[in-house]
Automatic annotation (TrEMBL), chains A, B:
Occurrences of domain HTH cro/C1-type (ranges): 7-61
CDD domains tied to this protein: HTH_XRE
Pfam family, one: HTH_3
Superkingdom of this protein's organism: Bacteria
Chain ranges passing through the membrane: none
Residues annotated as signal peptide: none
Protein name: HTH cro/C1-type domain-containing protein
DNA sequence: AGCAAAAGTGCACTGTATTGCACTTTTAAA
DNA sequence: TTTAAAAGTGCAATACAGTGCACTTTTGCT
């Protein structure tokens, strides 16, 4: 499961639209759409802005841990 | 602690140079240097390439977990 | 089914990440 | 302490991420 899907699922949990997420995070709507649909290659800052609004954070962890 | 520092620390654990990490990951040396020194705003793919070589992965998790 | 809202996409422009090169600074080993 | 290897940095070129706009497709509600 890629990062975009995780963002999308989490956003739906909050019952907000891509447009609202874009506004709240300060990221362009087009960028949010691309991120969620798995297109493109966002920068860390873009991903962090979006994740932050959704109460999530980007972390680097040792590989192959369950969940 | 930012992502660059985590990469740097992890790399030192493996006793390899930035140059070796760059070669192994397929990322430019200049980019590795910027990443580790906290300059710039890498893309997910760049960070994933480097993390992969170091046996790490980028994950999105619910915020405010310990560690 | 009908329809409005939400999501996905092609295009084009702007800004910036990636990169190599050449150089300086720092580190660590003899 | 010397000094070679490793790390940090300014500059410039290229590739591509971020974005708005206009449009199509999908979703989900009545």
């Amino acid at each position: 499961m890629h990062l975009g899907s995780i963002v999308k699922e989490r956003r739906k949990l909050f019952n907000i639209t891509q447009e609202t997420l874009a506004e709240m995070s300060g990221v362009g709507l087009r960028t949010v759409k691309q991120l969620e649909s798995g297109k493109g290659n966002p920068t860390i800052i873009t991903l962090e802005k979006v994740a932050d609004v959704l109460g999530m954070q980007l972390v680097l962890q040792i590989k192959s841990m369950n969940q």
